[in-house]
Amino acid sequence: MGEKMDGDAGDIWVEAWLAIWVRPRATMRRIVDTDPRKFAVGIAFVAGALAMLNIRSGMFGAPMPRMHLRMPPIGPFSLALTALFMGGVNVALLYAFGALYRWSGAMLGGTADAVKVRAALAWSQVPGIYLTIVGIIAAALGTVPAASARPLTHSPLALLDGIIVVWQFVISLKCLGEVHGFSAWRALGAILLGLLAILIVVFGVAITIWLAMAVGRALA
Fold this sequence. Notes:
The protein is an all-alpha fold and 220 residues long. The protein has helices spanning 12-22, 24-34, 40-59, 76-107, 114-123, 126-141, 156-180, 184-219. The protein is built from eight helices and no strands.
């Protein structure tokens, strides 16, 4: 079930923050075997909060559309509240998608429970946290112009962003596959199956609402 990692059980909580980049399956196995609940919610919260801060920092100095001229600037207190809110939203999404991918994984022969799936989803966000922190620091120092006017392909940071985003997705597949006990390709299938289930539910709700409105108009 993947390569072994050296060190005792206590070292995993130090090693995992870097090892998840290069040995995601082995790292995820040690995390699950030690305590799949540890840090999972915290990682999701920090990832969501930092993502919001990164979005705001990327807007500093950027040319805003005309309609934004009427919007009041957001202060530090409001920004902090927004970041906290987005952290909470990401935690909620962690639980929602944890349940969804536990079900879809089980449909494809996976054995993980929701706790282990949440651990996989949370720890696969760690590379994104590093990238977000770098982005915030770069924007604050002005080393990379916010919402740069340069073409996206001419930005070294944008290229690095793209590479890390792709690798983070691969890490998420490997982590999800590890906890479910199957391959990363089957993990991709579990994700696609889960997303398909969401689309079916949304489509079903939309059709139900449309039919209810049509019947209401017919009876009016």
